[in-house]
Amino acid sequence: MAKVELEDIRKVYDNGHVAVHKATFDINDGELVVLVGPSGCGKSTTLRMVAGLETITEGTLRIGGHRMNDVPPKDRDIAMVFQNYALYPHMTVFDNMAFGLKLRKFPKDEIKKRVEQAAGILGIASILGRKPKQLSGGQRQRVAVGRAIVRKPQVFLFDEPLSNLDAKLRVQMRTEISKLHRRLDATMIYVTHDQVEAMTMGDRIVVMHEGHIQQIDSPLRLYNHPVNKFVAGFIGSPSMNFIQGDLVRDDGLRFRARSEAFTIALGDTHTSTLGDYHGKEVILGIRPEDLYVAGSSYAPQPVAEINLTLDVLEPMGNEIFVYARSGEPVIVARVVPQSLPEPGQPIRLAMDLAKLYFFDVDTEKSIGPEHSTPLVA
What's the whole-model pTM score? Predict the structure, then answer.
């Protein structure tokens, strides 16, 4: 396996569109790094530049310490798993997995050994004689992964490989890929738009937006310490609530929501953190899981309570999504099953004061000491 290094990688198309702006990060030997972001953010383009399927406009790509900018894809010692499986319909599973090795003139015994070994790892040894049309979506995806494994490449590249599967199979396959990573101790780069996949699979995550890298960090650091409003809103499901308002002094520091929908008192920690923002407009963020029904025995302390009107309830079985408002915007809470008012009735929610986030209105960067050290690549 090998280390992958991207240094100021830039991709500009002939029409002038900049798809990737100076991407700089490393994937360490044996690490699984996930590139995540909404459609059009540049994550797949970045992966394709690593693979050699897209030319690099500027910057330097190294794999295993060797510059790869002008090296053909076949000579980069990488294996790629695509979204659409790309299996040959007229070939058996065995022949699909063996095809790349046959092109490289591997001995028959070595090909058989590698294919059977990969099939054993992936649990598809019993279907080696079948053709793709006889397989389920999950089996086809395993064959595509197996075709990559038999190559024993320096780097594995996955381009949204699970997006064609149903929800249950996606959960199963992301677990299988994570287990495969640990078993092979392989260097892997995985692209997805699904933040749940990113959070559950990645050693580190690269969050991208409009061609720019927003933050590179471990899953928990991204969740707990987002560097800006975009990362805070993208990581977590349902998304973080954002409420615009002013910081005012009234018997201590208070946050007053726009249109005076509600006002909450902030503690000493926030007073010192937000010192430069007194009298200014800011964005308050709080995750749905850090909101509670006021008076609940499981609510932490200290809290700030706000009066809202219940809009919608979404019972999920083990939890309930509560949508409530006092003006704009709608606030989403994720609470345990309990007796709740009917839609249209008042509801009082409690915010965990230790879990409040604040963002600059103009830059949308996080405000606070956690973010004084740059985390953006």
Answer: 0.90
Phi/psi of residue 360, nearest 5 degrees: -70, 135
Q: Which residues pair with 247 in a beta bridge?
A: 255
pLDDT by 10-residue block (mean), the chain, 377 residues: 93 96 96 95 96 96 96 93 87 94 92 93 92 90 90 92 84 88 92 93 96 96 96 94 91 85 84 85 96 90 92 94 88 94 94 94 85 41
What Å distances lie between residue 170 and 29, 125, 174, 177, CA to CA?
26, 21, 6, 10
Residues 6+ apart with CB under 8 A from 183: 121
* DSSP 3-state of 208: strand
Q: Which two tokens stand for residue 172?
A: 């199963």
Among left, alpha and beta (phi > 0; psi -120 to 50; other), residue 134 is alpha
Contacts of 167 (CB under 8 A, 6+ apart): none
